[in-house]
Design goal:
InterPro entries: DUF805. Helix content is 61%, strand content 0%. The protein is mainly α. Helix 1 crosses helix 2, helix 2 packs antiparallel against helix 4 and helix 5 runs antiparallel to helix 6. It is globular, with a radius of gyration of 21 Å.
Length: 163
């Protein structure tokens, strides 16, 4: 498969939390997700220096005669696009992470616990260490051969009888 195919694989398996995901599927999708996020954030933040420098935070209407209201349009459009992108990618992001943990013979509830902990005050500081550990775990190779979450996705000789 090409890198582009790996990026799209989680979208093709939308909402599929069962099974296993190879490292290539996980990391190419993460590159796609964070690459698009970076571009959208660049659009959002492109107008901030000019807007703040000219005092628009006090009087946004003062910028319209100078043509700088385009910065507000960029920030608003970028924000809406990012929100739509985030909503669309939320389930594939969760699913590919859970499947990656399954490939390591771990339950997807480990990720769920980290997500819940990240919203609890003071516990969220410790949860960030868990997210760093998650990155390391997802970088390690998966379990060789079948495990309780399914067949080995790297095994070319694996035959599914009732596929």
């Amino acid at each position: 498969m090409s890198p582009f195919d790996w990026m799209l694989q989680p979208l093709k398996r939308y909402g599929q939390f069962r099974g296993r995901a190879q490292r290539a599927e996980f990391w190419w999708f993460m590159l796609f997700y964070y690459g698009v996020s970076a571009v959208l954030f660049a659009i959002i933040f492109a107008g901030f220096p000019w807007v703040e420098m000219l005092g628009a935070s006090r009087d946004p209407q003062s910028l319209a005669p100078m043509g700088l209201d385009m910065n507000f349009w960029l920030m608003g459009t970028g924000g809406v696009l990012y929100a739509l992108f985030y909503i669309a990618m939320f389930v594939p992001y969760l699913a590919v992470t859970v499947r990656r943990l399954h490939d390591r013979e771990m339950s997807g509830w480990w990720y769920g616990g980290l997500l819940i902990a990240s919203f609890v005050p003071f516990v969220n500081m410790v949860a960030w260490l868990g997210f760093l550990a998650l990155i390391v775990v997802c970088a390690l190779p998966g379990t060789a051969g079948p495990n309780r979450h399914g067949p080995d996705p790297k095994d070319p000789h694996q035959v599914e009888v009732f596929a």
